[in-house]
Design goal:
About 30% of the residues lie in helices and about 30% in strands. The chain is built from ten helices and 18 strands. The chain has helices at about 10-15, 20-25, 60-65, 85-100, 120-130, 175, 195-200, 260-270, 305-310, 335-385, and strands at about 30, 35, 65-75, 75-85, 105-115, 130-135, 155-160, 165, 180, 180-185, 190, 205, 215, 220-230, 245-255, 275-280, 285-290, 310-325. The strands form six sheets. Strands 1, 2, 3, 4, 15 and 18 form a six-stranded antiparallel beta sheet that branches. Strand 1 and strand 2 (about 35) form a beta hairpin. The mean pLDDT is about 90.
């Protein structure tokens, strides 16, 4: 991996009009009416050496070009642009968000009584998928044979019995006829263990949403159980994933091969279902413009048919990713992104350490081989002297 900056000569060659079609293949994914083309990445350092263009990785260029632009952020969702990286790195970041950031989730369910129509194993599965609000940094992982302690486990109790309201007519809504006819996540009661009561408040611990329906009961039915929440990661089970979804798409790049005016511009605007195009009045003449490229879903309606394919260039910028991260509510999206970057940095450090260790082993082996060769030479010399 080279860290040198790309030469001035290489950048001058990239401006050569005669090779712009190659530059476009390197930097963009082009969409035609039938299929996308130039989808493969250009990762070989010498791929464009024949035309005087360097394609090696440059740390200096990466520092100069990489940026993150936050477009939208609230308690549950974050949308941002990540510019200047390749697809493998973007996908690694996405997979870390899905599977490698720890959270707390219900892992052990001890059912004492369940007379509802939901079988025990289905009920346990539903409970496990309820997002649990708790700071995972305040807890330890439970080992394979580890015991539950106040440092690694939160305990919740659920005890709900359905009864009939005698003074309510039979044709009344279920909510009026029955007490506890529906069991919700808000019915969980946190039971502090050890020092937890002094470390956390009831507002900091519990289901993220109180209106998650667990089961429906009818008079005489009861659910009584104890649930233990423990720390884990999404790679083990999806219930520990801190995101409801985390995905990216490439930034659309739409240009016109030549101006589109008059009736043709009006037809192009009407053709797009996402309202990407708009009409600009230039001296009394209508001319089409690309007004909202980010809303493009790449449906390719604007390039279907010989007429439009010769007028519209539909592409996606290869190193410009639009990320959408939707949290389950356990961790703020901004913190999730920060943690994902930290995990990615740790992985890089582990790789570097592994390479250093490998180099040290190879160096030690070479030194041992050298000493053995010297020893054998000395022994042969001794025999000759004798």
């Amino acid at each position: 991996m080279s860290e040198k900056k790309k030469s001035k000569k290489s950048k001058e060659n990239e401006a050569d009009p005669s090779i712009q079609h190659i530059i476009k293949q390197r930097d963009y994914v082009t969409l035609t009416a039938t299929a996308p083309i130039s989808t493969e990445g250009s990762y070989s350092a010498n791929k464009f050496s024949s035309i005087g263009i360097e394609n090696h990785f440059s740390l200096e260029d990466f520092k100069e070009n990489f940026e993150i632009k936050v477009l939208k952020m609230n308690e549950e969702e974050m949308v941002f642009d990540m510019i200047g990286i390749d697809a493998p790195l973007a996908n690694a970041f996405r997979r870390i968000l899905l599977a490698e950031i720890p959270t707390m989730a219900l892992e052990k369910i001890y059912i004492a009584n369940n007379t509802s129509i939901i079988p025990d194993e289905i009920l346990s599965h539903r409970l496990g998928l309820i997002p649990i609000k708790a700071n995972p940094d305040s807890f330890e992982f439970v080992g394979p044979d580890g015991d539950a302690t106040f440092n690694n486990t939160l305990v919740f109790r659920l005890d709900v019995t359905c009864t009939r309201n005698k003074n309510v007519p039979n044709d009344a809504p279920d909510e009026e006829k029955y007490n506890h006819g529906s069991v919700y996540s808000r019915d969980f009661v946190w039971i502090p263990q050890g020092e937890q009561e002094s470390l956390f408040t009831p507002e900091e611990v519990g289901p993220v949403h109180g209106d998650i329906l667990i089961a429906k009961l009818r008079p005489g039915q009861r659910i009584e159980l104890e649930a233990h929440a423990q720390k884990g990661i999404g790679a083990t089970h999806a219930k520990w994933s801190p995101v409801a979804t985390a995905f990216y798409r490439l930034q659309p790049a739409i240009t016109f091969k030549k101006p589109i005016r008059g009736n043709q511009a009006d037809r192009l605007k009407a053709l797009c279902p996402m309202n990407v195009f708009d009409i600009e009045d230039l001296g009394g003449k209508h001319q089409a413009i690309v007004a909202r490229p980010r809303t493009c879903t790449m449906c390719r309606e604007c390039v279907r048919g010989d007429e439009w394919e010769s007028l519209v260039d539909l592409s996606k910028k290869r190193d410009h990713f639009i990320f959408s991260v939707e949290s389950t509510g356990i961790i703020h999206p901004k913190i999730l992104v920060t943690k994902a970057i930290q995990v990615l940095m740790e992985k890089c450090q582990n790789v570097l350490k592994g390479l250093d260790d490998l180099n040290a082993i190879e160096t030690a082996e070479e030194e041992v081989e050298g000493m053995q060769l010297m020893g054998s030479d000395d022994e042969g010399l001794g025999k000759v002297v004798t």
